Each structure stands twice: as C-alpha cells, then as structure tokens.
C-alpha cells in the first residue's frame, strides 16, 4: 500500500530537490494555497531546492508575475521552468518559418524576442497551440474543422501546454493538450512541449543543479503534482519519485477533495504505470 500522508515533512528529508507542479498544487488559478506555500518555504529553509515545473504556455517570467498576483511568496521557489520555455526552444530551432498560432492573446509573450512571422492556416509552415481562443465557451471539438484544414496540409503542431483540463477556482477549463490530442487522433503530428515529456524535466533538473552548485542524484529528487497524465506519468517516466496530491483535477474521480478513497487512488495510479512515493490530499508541511 502506498503511504497516505497529511504532512510532507514526513518524507521531506529524503530529498534534496523538489520539482513542484504549480496549478492545482500551489494555487487554483485564483489564489495561492497557504499550506503549500508554507511547505515549500520550509523545505527550502532546511536546505532543499525547489524548482516549479509548470505546463503554463508562457515564459517563466510571466509565471513569476502570476504567482505574485495570486499571493504566493517568493520564498517558495529557487527557479521556474515552464512548457513555454520548452516551446520557445523549439521555435528557435525553426528560424524563418511562419507560424499559425492557436491560443489567446495573453499567450503572445511566448513569442517575444524570437524571429517569428505569423501566417494564416492556409500558408503557415507549422502551428503553435498554446490554448483555446476562448476557454470559457469552447472545447476541443470546437476546433475539429480547423484541425481538418491543418491536416489537409500536413502541418506540424507544437503543443505549448500538454494539460487537457485545468481548474480555475471551481470552473473546469480545456487546455491546449485537448486540442493537440484530438489533432493527433486525427493523424496530425504533434510535439508536446511540457510534462510528462523529458525535455521539461531536463531543464528543471539542470536549473536545480545550477542553484545547488553540484550534480543531484535522481533518487534525491521528488516531483509533486495533481495530474495523473502529466505529473505522475512524467515523474515515473523520468525515474524520480512522486508525491501525488488528490485534491486537484482528479478530486471527483477519487471521491472528493476532503475524503478521497485510497483504493480508488491506487487503482488509477497503478493503471497509469506505477505507484507514487506517497499520496496526500494537499501539499502541507
């Protein structure tokens, strides 16, 4: 049986580095979680290094500003790596090519400082999907016609946020990953620039090692997250332990935020390919 714990402190001393998810662990898209912020601050005070690892389709500097807006103190992290950072790296590998962008205007920061020319779907060389144009009213099915046009031209897509859904307060919204998954099912080629894929973990671990000034043994690295698809699968594939938080996007599936069913949690995680180091309702010291 996997350990169920209400206190991160019970396992924290086994790790030098934490790679923590942001949305669903540190905040809910509206406000920061005080207990989570306290736990990460305490871990750092004890000598640990925290890198926030997020599928936000924006450069890490934008994430810094958003965290401050939500009330998360600067004491909770040493650095941030976003799927936007990985997306920018991929765009930089394709100088001179034109881009068709799917996503809201607030994501345009992902292109700042890069040699980018935008074009329509009929003439672009490839596609960058950072989200839905309007996540308040649309789902991935709203894009089936557009994806059909892209597929007719065999356009390659970079998905800037592999998350399928996210919670904003009590509201569930679709993300770029939902569009990318549909395009892939239709036969399109997709590169997912974020969790659960290795490039974002490589960047995060490199940053953690730079902050610590030495190499870090992966057995001393812990991922914290609330998504089976991205956080748990990503940690398992990368060969690092995971503290899985149940009060996030899978809460209803597990029986509720306050009283999750341990057997239901284990069934889902085992079906996803393994067991986490520990399971907690929320991140709390």
Q: How would you explain this protein's 3D organization?
A:
The protein is an alpha/beta fold. It has 2 domains: 3-84 and 196-280, Rossmann fold; 86-192, Rossmann fold (3-Layer(aba) Sandwich). It contains 9 helices and 14 strands. The chain has helices spanning 9-12, 34-45, 60-69, 83-92, 144-152, 176-185, 198-212, 228-238, 262-271, and strands spanning 3-4, 17-20, 49-54, 79-82, 98-102, 117-118, 126-129, 156-159, 165-168, 171-174, 190-192, 221-225, 241-245, 278-280. Strand 2, helix 2 (34-45) and strand 3 form a beta-alpha-beta unit. The longest helix has 15 residues, at 198-212. The radius of gyration is 19 Å and the shape is globular. The mean pLDDT is 93.
Provide a brief overview of the structure.
The chain has 285 residues and is α/β, with parallel strands linked by helices. Helices cover 32% and strands 19% of the residues.
Topology diagram in text:
Blueprint: E1 3-4, H1 9-12, E2 17-20, H2 34-45, E3 49-54, H3 60-69, E4 79-82, H4 83-92, E5 98-102, E6 117-118, E7 126-129, H5 144-152, E8 156-159, E9 165-168, E10 171-174, H6 176-185, E11 190-192, H7 198-212, E12 221-225, H8 228-238, E13 241-245, H9 262-271, E14 278-280
Parallel strand pairs: 1-14, 2-3, 2-12, 3-4, 5-6, 5-7, 7-8, 8-11, 12-13, 13-14
Antiparallel strand pairs: 9-10
Radius of gyration: 19 Å
Could you name the CATH topology of the largest domain? Rossmann fold
User: What's the total count of β strands?
Assistant: 14
Specify the structural class: alpha/beta
The chain-level mean pLDDT equals 93
Distance between the termini: 22 Å
Tally of individual domains: 2
Order of helices and strands: EHEHEHEHEEEHEEEHEHEHEHE
Q: Which sequence of strands runs across the widest sheet?
A: 1-14-13-12-2-3-4
Strand content: 15-25%
Largest sheet: 7 strands, parallel
**Shape type:** globular
CATH superfamily of the largest domain: HAD superfamily/HAD-like
With helices defined by DSSP (H or I, 4 residues minimum), what is the helix count?
Answer: 9
CATH architecture level-2 label of the largest domain: 3-Layer(aba) Sandwich
User: Share of helix among residues?
Assistant: 25-40%
CATH uppermost class of the largest domain: Alpha Beta
List unreliable stretches of 5+ residues. none
